[in-house]
Amino acid sequence: MSRKISLAPDEFYHLYNRGTDKRIIFNNNRDRDRFIYLLYLSNGTRPFHFNELKPDTIFSFDKGGDLTNIVSYCLMDNHFHILVQSIDDTGISVFMHKLATAYTMYFNKINNRKGRLFETNFQVRHIDSENYLKYIHSYIHLNPIKIVEPNWKEVGLKNNSAVKQFLNNYTHSSYLDYAGNNREEQKILNKTAFPYFEDKKEFEEYLEDWLTYRPEA
């Protein structure tokens, strides 16, 4: 599929995709865990055979050099978001092809189905400013809020503390890795590629501005 934008080295891009016909692509935590494992494994130059790896050794697997710098990600029921910094002009495409192919093969096998799982190859938006970069980073991490408060962007949060607790329990995004949790999933990320929110306090202060936002009446 031809693209309207070129993927240039050192630039940031918002990558996303959803299930074909808006179908659910993550039925349970097993599916979500599999996709997160594949985020790590697919972002490398070395081939891998998933069935030869044990879950507790996946993040220790030598996947070779990174194809792109993953900055943040989030999984929802029928779509996902990934923020990356490009390393070269081909790495993102190779990474996304490996990721989509591996996950589709897994999903089709366990659900006894055939054919396309995702709506398109993948969607991409170029991040062309500092403010937009910080916004997308936060947007990705706040995306799960609509599970518990679907209209929060239109009316504001009803329960700020409950939402924060929900985010702290949502394990299928990189939110916890920026919130100071020490877990193996942080090996997916290249935080040094992202020049903002160098510590937990900066990250939480920026998100707080969005969480306390109230639309004008």
Automatic annotation (TrEMBL):
UniProt GO MF annotations: DNA binding; transposase activity
Any single GO BP term: DNA transposition
Cross-referenced Gene3D superfamilies: Transposase IS200-like (3.30.70.1290)
Transposase IS200-like domain segment(s): 8-143
Name of the protein in its database record: Transposase IS200-like domain-containing protein
Organism annotation: Candidatus Vogelbacteria bacterium CG10_big_fil_rev_8_21_14_0_10_50_13
